[in-house]
C-alpha cells in the first residue's frame, strides 16, 4: 500500500516537473514581480508630476547606473542583458506592484528629506558599492533600485504600499521584498532560497540584513553579529551554547553560518553540504576516514550521538556514558549490566565501564578504527 | 597575583563611582545651556488653554493682527496654524534656537504654559480666507509634484495636499511629528521667501524639522522659492 | 606515502595558479560573494571580542537613522534594528581618491583567580599580558569601488586572528586570513607517562612495564604534576571570488589547518572489573598533529532564466602522528593454566588515517511559469584512504596461555607482529556518495503556492577487508594487543579452521561496509490567508535503505503544519507542528553473521551453541518504529516604539516502539527575551530560558553469572528472546536521563557623554539526573549487599553552573582617543559522577586514570585597561 502511494507520488512529482518545463514560456519569464524589467523608456505614460517616464529617463542619471553608457563606449563588452541578476551596475528599478504607476524621481529627491538616512547609507557597503558602480554617471542612483519608483511616496508618503518597504509595517509582501534583493543577489549561496524554510516562514531579507547602515563587522546584518541575528528567532538554540560542552560560538570563534546556509539549501536543516556528516567532516576531517572498521551509527549520522549545539555531557554527547552506548548494546557479558553508583570511584566496585570516559576507555576509536585488530574499536 | 586581583577590582569600582560623578557634572552644566537643536521627533501634539492664550495676545496682535492675520507681509499669519508648530516656534524663540530681533524679546518672558495657551488660541482662529491659487503655475507644480530632475521633492507630502497640514494614513510604523509641520496655504509670500532662504542657508536650523527643511530648501533655486511663495500666498 | 604527499601539493599549486590566473580578469561586476555557501570561517572573533569588531570610538549616532521619526524601525518580524554607529567618513590618503579610517585598541589584561579552570578557558586563552583588542584598517576608493580592509585581534599567540580583504565592489574580492583558536580539553590531568604528545607513551623509570603493583602506580600518579590537555587550531586561508567572463562568476579558495596538541584517550589491556588484580585499564593521552588542506572552487552563471552553479570541494587530511603505542604498568596473569608464559606490556592504537575527499556538485535552476522554479542538483563525492596498516599486534615473544600440550593457547607474536600477517598491506578504504535532488515550486498567484521535491542520496562503502593471516592461515585479529588471550585462554581474537582450540571462535573477520540509500519525497502547499497570515502544509516521505543493518528499509512519514501571522495583537507569531511516524521492514537483530568467523568454512559450532548475538527485542533507535511530534511557537511582540518582547515555546515527544533500547525522548522549553533601546545612548535587554528534557531506555542483563541466572556457556545461551533463559525478565532494567537547564541574562549599556558603561550578567545552570529501576538485582553489574545498597542510593545529580559578570567603562578622552576599562568576574561549579573519587586517587586496582574532570568550583577574574586610538 505504502509502496503504491510512494510510486504514485514519485510519478506525480516527475510529471509536475516535466509539466513545469513544458509550461515555461518560450521567451524570458520574469522571476518575480520585482525582477521583471523596469518600464522601458519608450513607454511614455503620463505621470501625475506632469513628467513622462521618458522625460525622467532623459533627465536623470541613468538608473541602470551607467552600465549601458559604459558598455556602449566599449565595443568589447556585450550589451547589457536583461538578466534579473546582473551586477549592480545594471540593476533596474523594480516595479512596485502596489504602486504600478509610480515614476522614478532620483536619489537626490529622496535624500532631500531623508538626509540622515543618506548619511548612514552612504557609508554602508551597499550604497558605497552602488555609487562606485555609478561612477560613470554621477552619484544619483541607489534608493529606488531597492525601494521602487518613488513618485507616489513623495507626494503621499504614508500611502500604503506607495514604496517597496522592508520594515515591520510594510505592505509589500515578503516574497516581493526578497524578489527585489534577488534581482541582484540570485544564485550562488542563494540558489535555493525559493522554497527554503525561511522563505516559507515569511522571512524577508531585511529580517536578517540591514543594508542601510553598518551594524555588524560585515554582511550588512540587522544586528551586531550573525549569531545575534539567528538568535532573534532561535533563542533556544543560542541557550544551548551555554552548556558544559559546546561549539566555540559564544567565544566568537564560530557563527551559525559556518554550518548553516540561512538562504536555503537542499540538505535539512539548511546545511551547506550533501549530508550532516559532510558538514562535520569539514572541521573534523580526521573523522572522515573511511576506516577499515566502521561504527554504523557514526557513519550514518553524527547527530545519533552528538547534540552539536551544546550538551551537558562531555564532548557534546546526547546522553551520559554508559547509557548512551547501552541504548543499542545489550550483547552478552559486559555491555548490558545496569551500572549504578556501586561502580563509581567511590563505590564498592570501581568499574572501568562507568568511571571517567567509561566505555570509551577501551573502545577509544569509537569513530572507526584503521587497525587490523580494531573491529571493536579497541585499537 | 591572586591577591592583586581584588585590588584591581576595587580600583575599577572606584573609577566607576568617580566617573559617574564626573559624567553627571557636565551633563548638569549642559542642561543649563540651551540645546543647539530641538529634537522634535518624539513630540506629541500639544494642548493648551485657548481662552487663557487669548488673554495674552495683547502684544502679538500688533504685528500678527487681531484675528491672527498679519498686518504686513513680512509677518506670518498665525490664524488656524498648527498649535504644535506655533508652540515649537515660541519655545525656540524663547530658548534661543530660532532668532528674530522682535520675537526673541517677546518670547523671552513667556512661560511654558503661556506658549501652549497662545499656540492653542491661534490654532482655533479661522484661517485667512482661501485664495484661488494658480494650479498651473510653477509654484503649484513644485508644491504638488516637486521636480525630480533637480531633486526637489513635492511639498505636499508633509504640508498636505490642501496646504492645511499633513494628512497621514494610519500606520503603526514610527511616524514623523506631523503636528509640528506648519500649514502653508495662504501664508504671507514675503515671509515664506525669507524662511525658505533661512532654511537653505542654515540660519534657521534650530530643530530636527528645520534640519530636514535645510536639505529640502537646498534643492530650491531663488526662482523656485519665489514661485512657491507666490503660489502659496495666493492659494 | 610519496604519492599522498604529492596529492597534497598538486591541488595546492593548481589552486594557487588558478587564483593568480583569475585575479587578472576583473572587468565586469558581480552580485556578491558566496560566503554562506562554504563551511567555516564566516566569523572572526574571540572571547575578548566575540563580535570581532567593536569600535569603541564609533558610538551610536545620536541622530539615529532618520530625522523624520523617533526611534528605529523594525524588521518585518518586529525586532528593532539597533541604532547605527556614528559614521566614520574617513580621511584622504595622499592626493588621490583613496580614503581610509581605522581604529586600534590595545592594552594590558590581568587574569586572576583560578585562571586555569577548565570551563573558564575552554575556548579562550586568557593570559596576563598585553593584548590587541582590535586593529581595524579600511582603505577605499569611492570612485572606483576598490577597497582594502584589515581586521585583527590578539589575545595570545594561541588565540588570535588577522584577516585581509581587498577587491573592488561587485567585481572581485581576495581574502587572506590567519587565525589561531585554542581548545582546552582538561586542566586537571595527571598523565604518568613520558612522551605525552608523541606517539609513544613510556612509563617513568620507577615503574616496570607489566610488573608494577597498583600501589606503585598510585604512588607515581600521586606525584605527577598537573598537565593541560588541549589543542590549538591554526588556520590560514586564501580565496578569490570574482567575475571571469560576462555573467560567469568564479571563486577559488584554499585553507590550511594545522591542529596540534593532545586529547584524552584510552588504552585497554583487558578487563579489570571481572578479573581483580588482573587486566589493565588505562586512560592515556593521544597526540593531535593534523593538517587539513581544503580546496573550494565554484563557478556560477546567474541568468534571467537559468541559474547555474558548479562547485568542487576537496579536502586532504594528513595525520602526522597516526598511531599511539603505550606501556602498561600492570601485570597480566592467566586465569587458568600453568604459570604465565607470556607478558604483554604494551598496547597500540591506530589513529586516524590520512584521507582525501572530493565532491563535485552541479546546481541548476530554471524559472518557470506561475512564478515557478525548478531546481535540479546532482553531486558525486568520494572519500578515500589507503594508509599502510599496522601489524595486528606489536607484542614480542609469546602471547596467550599454556595449559597443557593439548591445550596450548599460546601464539608466537612473530606470527602477528609483522605486516606479513595482513591479508592486505593497506586499508584501501573508499566511500562514494551520490546525490540527486529535484524540486519544483510554483506560486501561480499571491494566495496559493505549492511545491514538490524528490531527493535521492546514496552512500556506498566500497571497503572490503578480510582479516586473514597468510602466515598462519588464521582469521581474525589479536584482541587488545594480546592481553585478552593472555588472561583468558583462547580469547586471542582469531579463528583457526585447522585447530580445534580455535575452530569454534566466532570473531569478526570482515569489516562491515555500512552504506545506505535514502530517498525523500516532499509535497507541500502554502496559502496566503491574508496580507499578514499564511499557512503551509508539507508531507514528507523518507525511505532509507541501509545495508548490513538490522533493517533493510526504514520509512519515515512526516506531516508538517506551519502557520505564520505577522498581526496577532501586533505580534508576529510563527507556529509549527509536525507529526511523524517511522516504521519499516522486519527487524533482524543479528545481520552480522556474514562478518563473523561462524560464516567461514571449518567453523565448528560449539556444543552449547553460540551465545545469542544480542536480545531479539532490541530496537536500535536509528532504525526502530517511532512516532514523533514537535511543536514550536515563536512570538515577537513590539512594545511601544523602543522595546520588543519575544518568546519561544517548544517541545517534542518521541516514542520508540522498543521493549529494549531507547523508549522515549521528550523536551519542553521556553525562552523569554526583552529588548529595550529607548535612545541611541541606552540599551538594555534581559533573557530567561528554561528547558527540561528526558530520555528513557530499557535494557536487560544477560544471565552471565551464577547469581543472575547463569546460562552463559550453557545450552540456553542461544535463546535471544526477552523472557527466555538467557535474557530473563528478572534481569530487565530501565534508565532515564533527565536534564534541566536554566539560563538568565541581563545586559545594560548607557552612554553618559564622555563615558559609556557596559554591564552584563549571565547565568547558566544545568542539573542532570540519571535514574533507573530494575526488575530484580539480577540486572545489576554487582549484586553483593554493598553494591545493592549503593545502587539503591542512586546517582548524585550532575551540575554545571556559571555566573559571569562583565563590566566595561569606556572613556572618550577626545574623539580620537579613548580608554576602556574592562572587567569580568566568573564563578562556576561543576560535578559529574563519572569523576567521583578521582580527586582522591586516579588508581583503582589495575585501572589508571589521567583526568580528574573539571574543577568543582572556580572563581576567575579579568581586568584590562585598553587604549583606543582612531587611526
From TrEMBL, chain A:
Highest taxon above the source species: Bacteria
Signal peptide start-end: 1-30
Region Disordered, residue ranges: 33-53, 70-92
InterPro entries attached to this UniProt entry: Decahaem_cyt-c_DmsE, Multihaem_cyt_sf, Multiheme_Cytochr_ET, Paired_CXXCH_1
Keyword Signal attributed: yes
Residue stretches making up the Doubled CXXCH motif domain: 204-238, 246-288, 295-330
Any one Pfam family match given in the protein's UniProt record, by short name: Paired_CXXCH_1
Keywords: Signal
NCBIfam families named among the record's database cross-references: decahem_SO (TIGR03508), paired_CXXCH_1 (TIGR01905)
Protein known as: DmsE family decaheme c-type cytochrome
Species name: Dyella halodurans
From TrEMBL, chain B:
Keywords of the record: Electron transport, Heme, Iron, Metal-binding, Periplasm, Signal, Transport
Keyword Zinc: no
Pfam families with a match to the protein in the record: Cytochrom_C (PF00034)
Stretches assigned to the Cytochrome c domain: 48-126, 134-235
Cellular localisation: Periplasm
Keyword Secreted attached: no
UniProt main location, coarse: periplasm
UniProt cross-references to Gene3D superfamilies, sorted A to Z: Cytochrome c-like domain (1.10.760.10)
PROSITE patterns: CYTC
Signal peptide: 1-22
Domain of life per record: Bacteria
Name this polypeptide is given: C-type cytochrome
Automatic annotation (TrEMBL), chain C:
Compartments where found: Cell outer membrane
Keywords, alphabetical: Cell outer membrane, Membrane, Signal
InterPro entries listed in its UniProt record: Beta-barrel_TonB_sf, Decahaem-assoc_OM_MtrB/PioB
Signal peptide annotation: 1-30
Source organism, top-level taxon: Bacteria
One Pfam family linked to the record: MtrB_PioB
The protein, known as: MtrB/PioB family outer membrane beta-barrel protein
Biological source species: Dyella halodurans
Amino acid at each position: 500500500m505504502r509502496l503504491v502511494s510512494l510510486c504514485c507520488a514519485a510519478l506525480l512529482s516527475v510529471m509536475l516537473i516535466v509539466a513545469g518545463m513544458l509550461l515555461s514560456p518560450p521567451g524570458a519569464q520574469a522571476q518575480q514581480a520585482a525582477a521583471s524589467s523596469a518600464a522601458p523608456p519608450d513607454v511614455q505614460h503620463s505621470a501625475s508630476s506632469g513628467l513622462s517616464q521618458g522625460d525622467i529617463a532623459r533627465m536623470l542619471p541613468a538608473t541602470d547606473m551607467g552600465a549601458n553608457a559604459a558598455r556602449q563606449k566599449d565595443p568589447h563588452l556585450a550589451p547589457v542583458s536583461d538578466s534579473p541578476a546582473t551586477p549592480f551596475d545594471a540593476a533596474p528599478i523594480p516595479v512596485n506592484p502596489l504602486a504600478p504607476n509610480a515614476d522614478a524621481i532620483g536619489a537626490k529627491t529622496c535624500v532631500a528629506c531623508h538626509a540622515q538616512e543618506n548619511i548612514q547609507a552612504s557609508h554602508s557597503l551597499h550604497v558605497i558599492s552602488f555609487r562606485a558602480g555609478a561612477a560613470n554617471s554621477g552619484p544619483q542612483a541607489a534608493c529606488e533600485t531597492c525601494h521602487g519608483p518613488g513618485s507616489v511616496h513623495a507626494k503621499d508618503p504614508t500611502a500604503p504600499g506607495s514604496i517597496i518597504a522592508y520594515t515591520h509595517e510594510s505592505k509589500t509582501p515578503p516574497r516581493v521584498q526578497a524578489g527585489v534583493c534577488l534581482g541582484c543577489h540570485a544564485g550562488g549561496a542563494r540558489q535555493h532560497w525559493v522554497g527554503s524554510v525561511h522563505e516559507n516562514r515569511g522571512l524577508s531579507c531585511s529580517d536578517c540584513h540591514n543594508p542601510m547602515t553598518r551594524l555588524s563587522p560585515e554582511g550588512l546584518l540587522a544586528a551586531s553579529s550573525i549569531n545575534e541575528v539567528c538568535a532573534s528567532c532561535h533563542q533556544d538554540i543560542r541557550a544551548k551554547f551555554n552548556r558544559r560542552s559546546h561549539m566555540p560560538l559564544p567565544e566568537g570563534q564560530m557563527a551559525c553560518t559556518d554550518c548553516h546556509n540561512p538562504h536555503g539549501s537542499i540538505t535539512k536543516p539548511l546545511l551547506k553540504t550533501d549530508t550532516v556528516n559532510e558538514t562535520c567532516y569539514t572541521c573534523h576531517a580526521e573523522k572522515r576516514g573511511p576506516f577499515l572498521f566502521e561504527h554504523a551509527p557514526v557513519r550514518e549520522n553524527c547527530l545519533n550521538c552528538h547534540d552539536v549545539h551544546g550538551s551537558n555531557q562531555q564532548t557534546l554527547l546526547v546522553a551520559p556514558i554508559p547509557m548512551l552506548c547501552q541504548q543499542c548494546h545489550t550483547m552478552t557479558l559486559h555491555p548490558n549490566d545496569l551500572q549504578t553508583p556501586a561502580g563509581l570511584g567511590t563505590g564498592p566496585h570501581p568499574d572501568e565501564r562507568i568511571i571517567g570516559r567509561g566505555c570509551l576507555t577501551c573502545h577509544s576509536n569509537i569513530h572507526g578504527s584503521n587497525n587490523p585488530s580494531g573491529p571493536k574499536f579497541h585499537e | 597575583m591572586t591577591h592583586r586581583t581584588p585590588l584591581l577590582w576595587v580600583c575599577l569600582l572606584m573609577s566607576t563611582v568617580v566617573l559617574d560623578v564626573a559624567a553627571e557634572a557636565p551633563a548638569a552644566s549642559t542642561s543649563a545651556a540651551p540645546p543647539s537643536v530641538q529634537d522634535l521627533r518624539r513630540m506629541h501634539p500639544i494642548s493648551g488653554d485657548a481662552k487663557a492664550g487669548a488673554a495674552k495676545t495683547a502684544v502679538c496682535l500688533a504685528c500678527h493682527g487681531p484675528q491672527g492675520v498679519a498686518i504686513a507681509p513680512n509677518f506670518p499669519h498665525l490664524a488656524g496654524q498648527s498649535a504644535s508648530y506655533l508652540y515649537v516656534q515660541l519655545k525656540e524663540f524663547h530658548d534661543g534656537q530660532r532668532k528674530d530681533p522682535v520675537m526673541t524679546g517677546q518670547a523671552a518672558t513667556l512661560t511654558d504654559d503661556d506658549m501652549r495657551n497662545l499656540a492653542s488660541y491661534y490654532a482655533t482662529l479661522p484661517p485667512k480666507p482661501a485664495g484661488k491659487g494658480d494650479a498651473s503655475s510653477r509654484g503649484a507644480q513644485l508644491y504638488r509634484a516637486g521636480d525630480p530632475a533637480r531633486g526637489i521633492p513635492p511639498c505636499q507630502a508633509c504640508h498636505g495636499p490642501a496646504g492645511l497640514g499633513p494628512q497621514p494614513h494610519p500606520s503603526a510604523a514610527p511616524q514623523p511629528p506631523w503636528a509640528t509641520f506648519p500649514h502653508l496655504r495662504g501664508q504671507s509670500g514675503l515671509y515664506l521667501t525669507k524662511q525658505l532662504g533661512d532654511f537653505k542657508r542654515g540660519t534657521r536650523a534650530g530643530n530636527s524639522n528645520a534640519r530636514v527643511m535645510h536639505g529640502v530648501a537646498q534643492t530650491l533655486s531663488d526662482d523656485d522659492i519665489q514661485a512657491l511663495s507666490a503660489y502659496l500666498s495666493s492659494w | 606515502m610519496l604519492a599522498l604527499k604529492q596529492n597534497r601539493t598538486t591541488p595546492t599549486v593548481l589552486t594557487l595558479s588558478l587564483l593568480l590566473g583569475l585575479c587578472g580578469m576583473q572587468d565586469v561586476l558581480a552580485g556578491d560573494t558566496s560566503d554562506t555557501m562554504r563551511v567555516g570561517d564566516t566569523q572572526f572573533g574571540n572571547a575578548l571580542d566575540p563580535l570581532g569588531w567593536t569600535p569603541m570610538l564609533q558610538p551610536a549616532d545620536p541622530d539615529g537613522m532618520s530625522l523624520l521619526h523617533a526611534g528605529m524601525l523594525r524588521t518585518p518580524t518586529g525586532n528593532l534594528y539597533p541604532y547605527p554607529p556614528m559614521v566614520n567618513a574617513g580621511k584622504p590618503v595622499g592626493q588621490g581618491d583613496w580614503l581610509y579610517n581605522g581604529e586600534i585598541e590595545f592594552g594590558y589584561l590581568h587574569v586572576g583567580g583560578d585562571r586555569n579552570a577548565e570551563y573558564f578557558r575552554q575556548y579562550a586563552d586568557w593570559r596576563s599580558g598585553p593584548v590587541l583588542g582590535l586593529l581595524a584598517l579600511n582603505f577605499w576608493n569611492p570612485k572606483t569601488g576598490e577597497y582594502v580592509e584589515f581586521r585583527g585581534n590578539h589575545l595570545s599567540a594561541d588565540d588570535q586572528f588577522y584577516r585581509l580583504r581587498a577587491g573592488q565592489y561587485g567585481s572581485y574580492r581576495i581574502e587572506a586570513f590567519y587565525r589561531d583558536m585554542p581548545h582546552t580539553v582538561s586542566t586537571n590531568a595527571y598523565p604518568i607517562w613520558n612522551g605525552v604528545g608523541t606517539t609513544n607513551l613510556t612509563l617513568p623509570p620507577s615503574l616496570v612495564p607489566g610488573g608494577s603493583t597498583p600501589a606503585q602506580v598510585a604512588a607515581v600518579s600521586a606525584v605527577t604534576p598537573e598537565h593541560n590537555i588541549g589543542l590549538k587550531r591554526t588556520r590560514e586561508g586564501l580565496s578569490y571570488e570574482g567575475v571571469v567572463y560576462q555573467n560567469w562568476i568564479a571563486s577559488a579558495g584554499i585553507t590550511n589547518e594545522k591542529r596540534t596538541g593532545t586529547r584524552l584517550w584510552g588504552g585497554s589491556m583487558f578487563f579489570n572489573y571481572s578479573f581483580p588484580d588482573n587486566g589493565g585499564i588505562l586512560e592515556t593521552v593521544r597526540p593531535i598533529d593534523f593538517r587539513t588542506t581544503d580546496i573550494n572552487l565554484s563557478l556560477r552563471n546567474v541568468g534571467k532564466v537559468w541559474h547555474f552553479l558548479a562547485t568542487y570541494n576537496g579536502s586532504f587530511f594528513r595525520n602526522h602522528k597516526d598511531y599511539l603505542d603505550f606501556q602498561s604498568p600492570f601485570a597480566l596473569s592467566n586465569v587458568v593454566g600453568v604459570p604465565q608464559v607470556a607478558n604483554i606490556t604494551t598496547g597500540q592504537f591506530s589513529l586516524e588515517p590520512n584521507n582525501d575527499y572530493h565532491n563535485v556538485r552541479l546546481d541548476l535552476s530554471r524559472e518557470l511559469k506561475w512564478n515557478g522554479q525548478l531546481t535540479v542538483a546532482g553531486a558525486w563525492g568520494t572519500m578515500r584512504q589507503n594508509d599502510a596498516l599496522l601489524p595486528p599486534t606489536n607484542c614480542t615473544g609469546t602471547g596467550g596461555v599454556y595449559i597443557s600440550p593439548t591445550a596450548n593457547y599460546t601464539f608466537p607474536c612473530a606470527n602477528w607482529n609483522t605486516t606479513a600477517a595482513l591479508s592486505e598491506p593497506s586499508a584501501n578504504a573508499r566511500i562514494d556518495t551520490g546525490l540527486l535532488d529535484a524540486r519544483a515550486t510554483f506560486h501561480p498567484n499571491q494566495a496559493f503556492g505549492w511545491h514538490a521535491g524528490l531527493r535521492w542520496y546514496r552512500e556506498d562503502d566500497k571497503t572490503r577487508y578480510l582479516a586473514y593471516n597468510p602466515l598462519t592461515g588464521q582469521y581474525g585479529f589479536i584482541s587488545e594487543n594480546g592481553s585478552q588471550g593472555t588472561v583468558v585462554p583462547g580469547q586471542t581474537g582469531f579463528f583457526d579452521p585447522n585447530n580445534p582450540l580455535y575452530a569454534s571462535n566466532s570473531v569478526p573477520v570482515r569489516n562491515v561496509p555500512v552504506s545506505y540509500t535514502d530517498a525523500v519525497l516532499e509535497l507541500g502547499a502554502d496559502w496566503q490567508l491574508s496580507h499578514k497570515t499564511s499557512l503551509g502544509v508539507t508531507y514528507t516521505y523518507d525511505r532509507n535503505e541501509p545495508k548490513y543493518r538490522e533493517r533493510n528499509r526504514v520509512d519515515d512519514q512526516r506531516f508538517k503544519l506551519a502557520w505564520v501571522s505577522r498581526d496577532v495583537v501586533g505580534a508576529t507569531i510563527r507556529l509549527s507542528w509536525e507529526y511523524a511516524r517511522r516504521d519499516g521492514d522486519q527487524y533482524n537483530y543479528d545481520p552480522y553473521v556474514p562478518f563473523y568467523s561462524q560464516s567461514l568454512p571449518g567453523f565448528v559450532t560449539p556444543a552449547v551453541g553460540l551465545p545469542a548475538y544480542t536480545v531479539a527485542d532490541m530496537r536500535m533507535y536509528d532504525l526502530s518504529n517511532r512516532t514523533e511530534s514537535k511543536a514550536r511557537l515563536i512570538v515577537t511582540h513590539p512594545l511601544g516604539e523602543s522595546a520588543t518582547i519575544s518568546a519561544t515555546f517548544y517541545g517534542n515527544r518521541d516514542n520508540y516502539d522498543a521493549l529494549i533500547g531507547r523508549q522515549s525522548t521528550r523536551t519542553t522549553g521556553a525562552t523569554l527575551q526583552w529588548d529595550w533601546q529607548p535612545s541611541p545612548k541606552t540599551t538594555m535587554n534581559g533573557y530567561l530560558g528554561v528547558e527540561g528534557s528526558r530520555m528513557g531506555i530499557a535494557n536487560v542483563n544477560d544471565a552471565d553469572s551464577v547469581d543472575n541466572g547463569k546460562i552463559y556457556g550453557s545450552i540456553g545461551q542461544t535463546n535471544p528472546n526477552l523472557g527466555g533463559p538467557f535474557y530473563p525478565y528478572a534481569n530487565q532494567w530501565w534508565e532515564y536521563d533527565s536534564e534541566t537547564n536554566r539560563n538568565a541574562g541581563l545586559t545594560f549599556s548607557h552612554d553618559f557623554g564622555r563615558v559609556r558603561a557596559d554591564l552584563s550578567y549571565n547565568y547558566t545552570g544545568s542539573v542532570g539526573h540519571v535514574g533507573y529501576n530494575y526488575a530484580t538485582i539480577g540486572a545489576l553489574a554487582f549484586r553483593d549487599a554493598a553494591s545493592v545498597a549503593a545502587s539503591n542510593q542512586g546517582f548524585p545529580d550532575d551540575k554545571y553552573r556559571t555566573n559571569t559578570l562583565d563590566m566595561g567603562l569606556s572613556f572618550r578622552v577626545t574623539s580620537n582617543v579613548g580608554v576602556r576599562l574592562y572587567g569580568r568576574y566568573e564563578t562556576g561549579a561543576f560535578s559529574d559522577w563519572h569523576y567521583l573519587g578521582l580527586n582522591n586517587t586516579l588508581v583503582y586496582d589495575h585501572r589508571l586514570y589521567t583526568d580528574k574532570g573539571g574543577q568543582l568550583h572556580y572563581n576567575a577574574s579579568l581586568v584590562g585597561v585598553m587604549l583606543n586610538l582612531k587611526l
